[in-house]
Design a protein that fits this description.
- The chain is mainly alpha-helical.
- It is 64% helix and 3% strand.
- The chain has helices at residues 11-18, 37-58, 67-87, 95-114, 134-156, 172-207, 213-231, and strands at residues 27-30, 33-36.
- The protein has a two-stranded antiparallel sheet.
- The chain is globular and about 60 Å long.
Length: 233
C-alpha cells in the first residue's frame, strides 16, 4: 500500500481542499466577488411574489375588506399572535422582522413544490427553492441569532451574559457552544427537510410519473408550512 504524503503550506491550499461541492452551481463573477446566481435568482423571485401580492391587495384598502384584504389581515394577526407567544407583551417592534422572515421562508418552501424551476435551463446547475440551498438557510439562521442576541442586550444590558453561567459557572463552555451551534442546527434542519422533500418528489416522478407523486407533493406542501412555523417556535 502506497501512502501519498500531503502537505499544506499556505492558507490558499487549505481553502482549495475545503472547497468541496456537491453537484454543479451557477455563479456570476462581479468584480472580485463570486455570486451564487441560483440562490440570488430564486430568492428575488420569491421577494417579487411577496411584494407583488402586497401591492395588488393592499394598495386600495376598503372599509369592508375584500377577500384578499381579509386574507392578508388574517396573516398579519397570525404573525402577531406568533410573535406575542414567543416574545411576550413587548412583541410589537419585532412583528416586521418576524413577519418578513416567516413569509420569506414559507413562500420559499412552497415555491419548491409549486414553481417549475427545473424547466429553466442554466449553463451549470439548476434552479430550486431558495431554502433548498445551505447558503440561504445559514444566512437566515445567522440573522435570527443576531436578532436574538441584540434583543437580549437591549432588554437586559450586560446582565444578559449572566445566562451563560447559570445554573453554575462550570457550564459556561457548554452554554457558549450551544449558542454557536444553534444557527448550525437551524440551518441544516430547514435545508435538510426541503432538500429531502424535493428529492423524494423527483425520484417518484421519475419512477411513477402519473398519480403516485401527487399525495407526496400535497404532503410536502403541508410539511413546508410546518417547517416555516417551527423555525420561529
Amino acid at each position: 500500500m502506497n501512502i501519498i504524503p500531503c502537505s499544506i503550506k499556505t492558507p490558499k491550499e487549505l481553502y482549495d481542499i475545503s472547497g468541496v461541492e456537491v453537484g454543479q452551481h451557477f455563479y456570476w463573477q462581479i468584480g472580485g466577488f463570486q455570486i451564487h446566481a441560483q440562490v440570488l435568482i430564486t430568492s428575488w423571485v420569491v421577494i417579487t411574489i411577496l411584494l407583488g401580492l402586497v401591492v395588488i391587495v393592499i394598495r386600495n384598502p376598503q372599509t369592508i375588506p375584500t377577500d384578499g384584504q381579509n386574507f392578508f389581515e388574517y396573516v398579519l394577526e397570525f404573525i402577531r399572535d406568533l410573535s406575542k407567544t414567543q416574545i411576550g407583551e413587548e412583541y410589537g417592534p419585532w412583528v416586521p422582522f418576524i413577519g418578513t422572515m416567516f413569509l420569506f421562508i414559507f413562500v420559499s418552501n412552497l415555491s419548491g413544490a409549486l414553481l417549475p424551476w427545473k424547466i429553466i435551463e442554466l449553463p451549470h446547475g439548476e434552479l430550486a427553492a431558495p431554502t433548498n440551498d445551505i447558503n440561504t438557510t445559514v444566512a437566515l439562521a445567522l440573522l435570527t441569532s443576531a436578532a436574538y442576541f441584540y434583543a437580549g442586550l437591549i432588554k437586559k444590558g450586560l446582565s444578559y451574559f449572566e445566562k451563560y453561567i447559570k445554573p453554575t459557572p462550570i457550564l459556561l463552555p457548554i452554554n457558549i457552544l450551544e449558542y454557536f451551534t444553534k444557527p448550525l442546527s437551524l440551518s441544516f434542519r430547514l435545508f435538510g427537510n426541503i432538500l429531502a422533500d424535493e428529492l423524494v418528489v423527483v425520484v417518484l416522478v421519475s419512477l411513477v410519473p402519473l398519480v403516485v407523486p401527487i399525495p407526496v407533493m400535497f404532503l410536502g406542501l403541508f410539511t413546508n408550512g410546518i417547517q416555516a412555523r417551527i423555525i420561529y417556535s
